[in-house]
Amino acid sequence: MVEYTMKRSLILALLICISCTQTRHNDKLQNKKIGIESRNNSSLVVVSHPLMQHFLCILRNRNTKPSDFRASLEKISEFLIIEATKNLHTTVVDVETPIEKTICKCIDPNQKIIIAPILRAGIAITSVAEKIIPDAVIQFLGMYRNEKTHEPVWYYNKLPATLDNPSDIKVFICDPMLATGGSAYEAIKIFLDKGIKEENVTFVCVICTPEGLEKLFHAFPKITIVTASLDRKLNEQAYIVPGLGDAGDRIFNTAK
Ligand code: PRP
Ligand code: URA
């Protein structure tokens, strides 16, 4: 318990440090006009490109209509997926251009990749990911949060009972929101139970919270989380503050 409390304090200190340095870092970044920037501390990567912030601003705005919300989420997802997949294996191939023979690198066709959207909102990131990552397997994970307990409730899971060579598979779990971390925890655990290595799991989200990060890194210290923003906290209803509201409702225009 003491050890956990100490780890907890360390993680929180680390998170506070990351969120505090973000703005200064972005200023530097704008000056340097670098393409995609990531602040990488252990396994949390906050992608803070100015365009990410621009589109995040549109997502956060309560007056953004669903079609614009989806379009901005799509753009953010491209950056997130490119960052999340930066360590995929490549292989060398001979190619003949119209000018001469040359050597290129392509994604290793033997690299097994699973993209796993958490329904519903994860579909929006996955629709981008499946266009960028060749030959990935898509595994839908159906869960919703119980409104009172905020615990995830499973309603769809068609993962096969066993996976071939699971230790070679890279998994990208997609969900715009990491709030309490309950849904992400369930999703990650189901893959680890099938023999996927923790270090081969990447959770891709648009917004995360200190509470969610703490839950995931405590349980799965070797995973990677790629995000556009580390927000301040959860409110009493376990919504992210400042957040963007209910991601699924805003994507699919189902808000009451
Ligand atoms: C949202 C979100 C995540 C979950 C995050 O989904 O898309 O899946 O909540 O919350 P957590 O970190 O506290 O588990 P929701 O349950 O609202 O379902 P929906 O996508 O179908 O709207
Ligand atoms: N799920 C959402 O869609 N938004 C939140 O703020 C928290 C959970």
Largest sheet: 9 strands, mixed
The ligands bound in this entry are: 1-O-pyrophosphono-5-O-phosphono-alpha-D-ribofuranose, uracil
Helix fraction bin: 25-40%
- The percentage of residues in β strands lies in 25-35%
| Total count of strands | 16
What's the shape?
Answer: globular
Terminal CA distance reads 43 Å
Q: On the 0-100 scale, what is the average pLDDT?
A: 88
Total number of helices: 7
What is the chain-wise order of helices and strands? HEEHHEEEHEEEEEHEEHEEEEH
CATH topology tier name:
Rossmann fold
Residue ranges: pLDDT <50 for 5 or more in a row?
1-7, 12-41
Rg over alpha carbons: 19 Å
Task: Give the CATH level 1 class.
Answer: Alpha Beta
Q: What is the domain tally?
A: 1
Class by alpha and beta content? alpha/beta
Judging by the overall fold, what is the CATH architecture? 3-Layer(aba) Sandwich
A few lines on this structure:
The protein is α/β, with parallel strands linked by helices.
List keywords for this structure.
256 residues; 3-stranded parallel β-sheet; 9-stranded mixed β-sheet; alpha/beta; Rossmann fold; 26% strand; binds uracil; binds 1-O-pyrophosphono-5-O-phosphono-alpha-D-ribofuranose
Give your account of this protein's structure.
This protein has 256 residues and is of the alpha/beta class. The chain has a single domain, classed as Rossmann fold (3-Layer(aba) Sandwich), CATH 3.40.50. Helices cover 39% and strands 26% of the residues. The strands form four sheets. Strands 1, 2, 5, 6, 7, 8, 9, 11 and 13 form a nine-stranded mixed beta sheet that branches. Strands 10-12-14 form a three-stranded parallel beta sheet. The radius of gyration is 19 Å and the shape is globular. Residues 1-7 and 12-41 have low confidence and may be disordered. Bound molecules: 1-O-pyrophosphono-5-O-phosphono-alpha-D-ribofuranose and uracil. 1-O-pyrophosphono-5-O-phosphono-alpha-D-ribofuranose is lined by residues 118-121, 144-145, 150, 152, 175-184, 212, 238, 246-248.
